[in-house]
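Hey all, sorry for the wall of text incoming. These are the two entities for the joint prediction.
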Amino acid sequence: MIAVEALSHRYGSRVALSDVTFHVDEGAIFGILAPNGGGKSTLFRILSTMMAPSSGTARIAGFDVTRDPAEVRRRIGVVFQTQSLDKALTVAENLRAQGHLHGLSGSTLSSRMEHVMARLGLLDRRNDLVETLSGGMRRRVEIAKGLLHSPLVLLMDEASTGLDPRARLELWQYVEELRDRERVTILLTTHILDEADRCDRLLLLHQGKIVAQGTPAELRSRIGGDVVILDVSDPAALGQKIEARFGVRTSVVDQVLRIEIQNGHRFITEVVEAFPGAIDSVRLQKPSLEDVFVHETGALIE
Amino acid sequence: MNRLTATEPSELTGKRLEPGTRARLIGRANAFWLPVVTLWHRELVRFWRQKSRVLGVVASPLVFWLLIGYGSGDLGRFFAGALVLTVLFSAIFSTISIIEDRREGFLLSMMVSPASRVSIALGKILGASTLAWIQGLIFLAFAPLAGVHLSSPDLLPLVLVVFLVSFTLTGLGFVIAWRMNSTQGFHAVMNLLLVPMWMVSGSLFPMSTAHGWVRALMWINPLTYSIAALNHLLHLDSGPRLSLSLAVTCSFGLLLLILSGALANQKTTHSSA
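and here's what came out:
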């Protein structure tokens, strides 16, 4: 449904995307997990036909985003990270305008409006001006807008930003329902690990390059074993001592010492006994997607 | 009308409509004009919800006109100029909203919709020109103060020319605003280009009394011909002939429309869009 081949983009001399290739099957939820500045906004702009890439191609439902933007636009629904509503209009007026832009009118438009407003809990707010709505409510209108013309592909850029946990959960339920019942293909960008975990497939992007892709489980299995995290006063120095003594690889990320290791629970007792008093606190965890990101890039997502 | 009927199952269940089907069902003309109408309507609704704008746009040219007119003892001399200033202010305020739309993201959702870029530009320009037109007409109602008796045979041509001028100046505002990211930038252009352009259009002094290069500027200033056309229809002193004035104003408007469409159609490779 989405095919991206050797996509690169540069702003002047700054490389924002470098040789990115991936495919998304119909009816899948595909997540792009990246820190800010990782290239996800650029990728999103290209996929949503807002910008032509420097090189490479991106196709949605078989149409090239650069050569056939009109055909692509007919098939995509876009939920932007930034607000895209007209605050001086009501919820219903915003949706109606959106429908008209998509060539919907009359009873088709009315029934679609009813449907998305009902689905997103907006029916009783339909005649309220957008400027009177809370941030979370506005987000819902944004999402309703993206879904109004029943797109084949839904592109969401950090769509859950500003939603409270419950609203975020509801959004995810709806997204999964769209996938399961209507085989909508969903591509979303996020830096929230819980969200990334719910995707069918994930792409990890760092400094414009793909660092890994696969299902969340596949990505986790890249780290064999556990992750041990040590809070210490001088992580670099202790790291060297631990490497010398145990023959393991350590890394310092954000002032803490990280060690990927099999049987972490045994290692913890050994390391604490070996360096009494040097360790302030110890944490043992199953690899998270954050750990995968750190493993691949040496950097944190957030 | 080519629409899906209410019995279409997709509407009842909320299942998605096949894009191909929809493209066939909606006529091409509809797909072009629907966005135009909806964006035009949006401008009017927004304007209606902030009526104080009317006051601001009509009041300041009215004050300028009365001060200069009474001060110099000739209200009629400056009437057309003040009317065009009203229209210019309105056009500026409306087209500044393109920059706000861009900043607030509304422009983004227009640009990722399948609506043709030309229809988006046209809807915006028509909406903004309608507002400028209405405000120009409000100003026109003060004509008797200038000693101008608005007779019925002149009224329709006047109303049309005011629209033409509104359309042209809005088009000009659109072309300037389209690629801009800040309203401050627009204000700079307004002070350095639009207001001087208005000053050397015959609104303050006639071309016959102008000297040297300013006179040359007046010759090439399209706005000179808009003012002249209005003065002709108001039976006030005017410069160039009516037919020439109308022809220049129409051509300028058309040129700006084409330019707006071309600008809107441009593909972008940078981040600001």
